[in-house]
Protein 1
Amino acid sequence: MNAPAGYTETKLIDPFEVFVGPVFERREDGVRRFAFVVDERHVNMRGVLHGGMLMTFADLALGAAVWDATDNAPCVTLNMQTQFLKSARAGDLVEVAPQLTRRTRSLVFMRGDFTVAGGTIMTAASIWKLLNAG
Amino acid sequence: MSTVSVLPPDAEEISRGGFNRFVGPFYKLADPEPGGAWRYVFVAAARHMNAAGSVHGGMLMTFMDVAMSRTTRLAAGAKSLSTVSLSCDFVGPGRLGDLIEARVRVVRATRSFVFMSGEVVARGRPLMNAAGLWKIVP
């Protein structure tokens, strides 16, 4: 798949992310934004983007933002909260600009608004544990 | 070293198409007694993993989304439905070959909404704890 205009393909290492990908990224103001194009694999039988794909993309994008904010510190997801606001369909470009809410010695709080054509379809907030922080 | 788990005899495949079938298969176990938990399973395969050798969090959230959607359909008789919110705590790692089970309880069902709690377990240990709110579309 060709990258959407302005984006380059993100290097993925987790087998599950490779399986559902590709995912794309672009730098703006020094931080990475992420995107994927909804295709026929990602929708349910009514043609609507599956919540599982959106949550997987959220975990991937917010996790990458945690690495960017911590010099690639090893981390795991402790919690993720998602709210589904609108549906999306095959062909839609889903984008997110992750936002760092707070960082402590052992935790990182991240959030993101996931948009299609500028309209928010999902919001996600996740809490990450930094593994080497004790 | 991992072993491939054997599916329980009452497992019924529920991933007929779309993303469910692409990432699945997912199975439903026998219907619960009144007030009991609805139970679902899948077997963790290589494509479900992360680079650290655990089942990917996105896969576990997908599993819970599938399990709560199916529970809304079965417990509330809803034909059309959508996820409003889902919160997941990641409690412990799932491993390659694990038989991974979701247990979903309906906390309350109204005409328009179903409130659920869920847990995911494997090898007798908790992997995930979840709370979900689903809307029934008339």
Protein 2
Amino acid sequence: MSLSTISLSKNITQLYRYKLYAYRNSVISLMIIQIVALLLSLNGTNQSMTVYENVSITIHSYSANIVLAFSMIWAFITAISLTTKPYRDADFILVASRLTSHLSNILFLLTASMIAGVTAMLSGFLLKLIAVYLLSQEVIAQQTLPISHLLLGILVATLYMVLISSAGFLAGMLTQWHRSFIIIIPALVMALFFIEWTTVDETEQTSMPAMIALFRFFGTEHSLLMFTVKVLLCVLICYGITHYLSSRMEVKG
Amino acid sequence: MPVIEAEELSKTYGGLTAIDQLSLNVDENKLIGLVGRNGAGKSTLLKLMAGYLKPSAGSIKVFGEAPFNSLTVSANTILINDRLSLLPPLSVTDVLEMMARFYPNWDHELAHRLCRYFELNPNASPTALSKGQQNTFYTILGIATRCPLTLLDEPTLGMDKAVRADIYRLILKDYLNHPRTLIISSHLIGELADILEEIILIDRGKKKVHLPVDELSGSVIRLRGSQEALSPILATDQVIEQQWMGKGTLSLVVRNELPEEMLHQLRSKQVDILPVPLDDVCVYLTKNKQGGIDDVFKHD
């Protein structure tokens, strides 16, 4: 019987397509999570009231921040689930090497991140439509949003999902590699809130918890290019480490 | 060209040695039984062949390549066991479709016909099937992929006798139509003996024998006769087991390495020379030196 050969790229595509199909339930769970987040957002994420002479003005702010946050949690958990034994072992019943299995996981997570980023951003419009047309009586003025802003929002949201899912993948893979990381990772995250991080500026020296510094590292970046570079760098580090770990992992099955 | 070459292969888990300096050569297009007692290392050996596990020492080559992390070995090898990891949302039909996409030799027609024959619900998740049906399904996958190296680890677990007979027939028929290297590990080697060509017997992680089936079944014989007639045999180190049958009659299981004249002598003294079933041959060859279960009950 002659041996069949398969190229790396063909195998990755095969595995990627298989994963899109086999993991399709994760998209359903994303939708459910986003609907729950939308319902929670209907109350308005922020409310303020001003009384001016005999006119009172109540301002409800609606934003998709909760949907975004929930979607990020989803991305994190989905990434962790890919590192669990049934998911990892299933690839090897089919045709896979550890490299192609890893790369197809990354492709799947990038796709999932894009879906989560796009839907989370668009849900903001749905939320505003509900707020304006269902929750209030009449529309006096309406602001429009240029498409470039929308695309920018989608891009940034997607990048956040990519970042979070790579972190989840790393956390999951570390846990698979050694059980002690089940404790070490949450402990480390909590510790980051208390460890002091000092940045020295030209003018002043500021101290803050390391976790806040980490949030600011991404959150206060105003240049899209820099933000993208920062995210991609972190993602590369996460996937680099997970590749190193997974290339040694055995299929115990 | 040998399909599998193992050289001083060892695999340890923690402090436990599952495979212990095992050397083995398996030729192309053979139907082989892998036999050994529980915990002898059968599953570990199959996983090393499939590239699931990384050797702790020594080397293993499959199709001339180290199987761990080899895409070529993965594409040409399939390992089926009862713990196959198939994701719950996939139905029986889904899994067949998946296999078709990945394995170029996959026989889709055959797989579907077999699923119908064994009455497997095409819409059910394989994990929801009964144990026996699950293993039937997994074996169908193993056969229909037609991989040049097909490894079936205890394929008949949980199957009833009728299904087992069908499965053996299926394996043999498909093997004859599409010769490939097929290794089947099983406890029920007696049932399988008719279809196998060779047997690899392993014990405590070491290879005991690797022989054609006929040679293996002839390698152990049973002698039954009076104690007096059998006493010269008792003096040799060929005796594997002795049992008193009452009234001075002794039944011995011996390695078939006695000289012809000795056998002739025995026959003249009314000693029965009986064949030993293949199952028992394997048991005797891997017999624990510290006696049997009866000895556990003996107190000083």
